[in-house]
């Protein structure tokens, strides 16, 4: 069975990324794995002040709700889907998940279509290409302005 790893950041582009992934999955019969790397689930930070812990819990609940929304969108289109919310460095966490899931390719959003911006700032996509050597589909954000 074909498998697609779908990387989300919960920004405005995530809707386009999920739509594109579902379209591919429906056409090819592929299974999807949605992943998001959370800044609120740092496993190394065990000493958290109470107020910070409450805020972190609220953010984690919101992340879970967003992921469930995206899973529902995929299931409504008849797509087999699972998801994970990861912690750690974005590129490393996605690479670890990709090695475990063994996808045929990865879909990720891109806020800019400007190659020079990617070269200067770097990008998650570039990091994934270097580390994984898997095909990568970049979904451009139609409403994002080049940054």
Descriptors:
48% helix, 5 strands, 147 residues, 20% strand, Rossmann fold
Question: What's the short story on this structure?
Answer:
With 147 residues, the protein is α/β, with parallel strands linked by helices.
What does the model show?
By secondary structure, this protein is an alpha/beta fold. It has one domain (3-140): HUPs (Rossmann fold). 48% of the residues lie in helices and 20% in strands. It has helices at 13-28, 50-76, 90-101, 115-121, 124-132; strands at 3-8, 31-37, 81-86, 105-110, 136-140. A five-stranded parallel β-sheet has the order 3-2-1-4-5, with helices on both faces. Strand 2, helix 2 (50-76) and strand 3 form a beta-alpha-beta unit. The protein is globular and about 45 Å long.
What is the number of E strands?
Answer: 5
Mean pLDDT: 84
Oligomer: single chain
Number of helices: 5
Q: How is this fold's topology laid out?
A:
Blueprint: E1 3-8, H1 13-28, E2 31-37, H2 50-76, E3 81-86, H3 90-101, E4 105-110, H4 115-121, H5 124-132, E5 136-140
Helix pairs in contact: 3-5
């Amino acid at each position: 069975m074909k498998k697609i790893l779908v990387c989300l950041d919960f920004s405005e582009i995530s809707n386009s990324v999920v739509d594109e992934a579902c379209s591919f999955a429906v056409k090819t019969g592929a299974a999807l794995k949605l992943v998001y790397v959370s800044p609120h689930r740092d496993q190394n930070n065990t000493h958290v002040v109470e107020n910070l812990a409450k805020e972190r819990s609220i953010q984690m609940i919101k992340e879970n709700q967003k992921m469930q929304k995206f899973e529902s969108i995929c299931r409504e289109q008849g797509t087999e889907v699972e998801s994970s919310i990861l912690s750690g460095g974005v590129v490393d966490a996605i690479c670890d998940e990709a090695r475990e899931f063994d996808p045929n390719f990865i879909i990720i959003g891109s806020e800019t279509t400007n190659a020079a911006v990617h070269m200067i700032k770097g990008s998650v996509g570039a990091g994934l290409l270097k580390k994984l050597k898997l095909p990568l589909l970049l979904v451009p954000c139609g409403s994002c302005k080049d940054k």
